[in-house]
Amino acid sequence: MDMKHLIPIFVIFFFFMSTTSASVALAPSSSNTQSFSFSKPPGDQTFFILPNDVDPKLQSICGETDYPIECLTTTIPFLDENVAIIPVSILKVEIDAIHNKTKEAIDKAYEFSMNPSTSRLLPLCLKTCINNYNAILESKQRILDAISIGDANELSMELSHNMEHVFACEDEFKEAKIESPIVELNSLLVKIITNSLTIYVDMVKV
């Protein structure tokens, strides 16, 4: 397909997906496959208007990921003339996006912890989330080192662990039978991590 037609397709896809729940599946280190769902609250939708001059090479890279819109929206704001539009560079930008969104999630978790809650379990759930988020932050340099030396096993392991940390956060709310106030950030984190794995496995690791 001609790459110039990708943007409108992505936007239509994003509009459709924003009206439904986002579901993500991961095969953890164990032999059992687990599925996790992140429900998007109705009426709370975020739209991102893509610029008209998106680099065709970036469109091509993001078009090969599971979540092309999220790939574009998390990379475009951080690109400048010094960033080469090649898979390994975009992968590093996505790792930065994981780091930044995780810090944002920590801030949100602290914010919700300080507010009065109808559930006494909410602060406990958020504390677990913060611990898992901190583990994600600590992994950034190990991931960048793995990219630099081409250590596929280390990179895949670190990103998979990051995915599990996000799921562990959401599991706390599920077990407590309360609504997660940070479900959208967690959903986005899972999508960025998934895209990062795809970019590395399908485009960088050759």
Query: Strand share of the residues?
Result: under 5%
Q: How would you sum up the major sheet?
A: 2 strands, antiparallel
Q: In total, how many domains does the architecture comprise?
A: 1
Over all CA atoms, what is the radius of gyration? Answer: 17 Å
Q: How widely separated are the two ends?
A: 23 Å
At the fourth CATH level, what is the homologous superfamily? Answer: Invertase/pectin methylesterase inhibitor family protein
Q: Write the CATH fold name.
A: Butyryl-CoA Dehydrogenase, subunit A, domain 3
Q: Tally the helices: what do you get?
A: 8
Tell me the structural class.
Answer: mainly alpha
Chart the SSEs and their pairings.
Elements: H1 6-17, E1 22-26, E2 34-38, H2 56-63, H3 68-75, H4 87-114, H5 122-138, H6 140-149, H7 152-176, H8 183-204
Antiparallel strand pairs: 1-2
Helix pairs in contact: 2-3, 3-8, 4-5, 4-6, 4-8, 5-7, 6-7, 7-8
Protein name: Pectinesterase inhibitor domain-containing protein
Pfam family, one: PMEI
Domain Pectinesterase inhibitor: 53-199
Question: How would you characterize the overall build of this protein?
Answer:
There is one protein chain. The protein is built from 8 helices and 2 strands. Strands 1-2 form a two-stranded antiparallel ribbon. It is mainly α and 206 residues long. It has one domain (3-204): Up-down Bundle (Butyryl-CoA Dehydrogenase, subunit A, domain 3). It has helices at 6-17, 56-63, 68-75, 87-114, 122-138, 140-149, 152-176, 183-204; strands at residues 22-26, 34-38. A hairpin with a 7-residue loop joins strand 1 and strand 2. One of its GO terms (molecular function) is enzyme inhibitor activity. This is Pectinesterase inhibitor domain-containing protein.
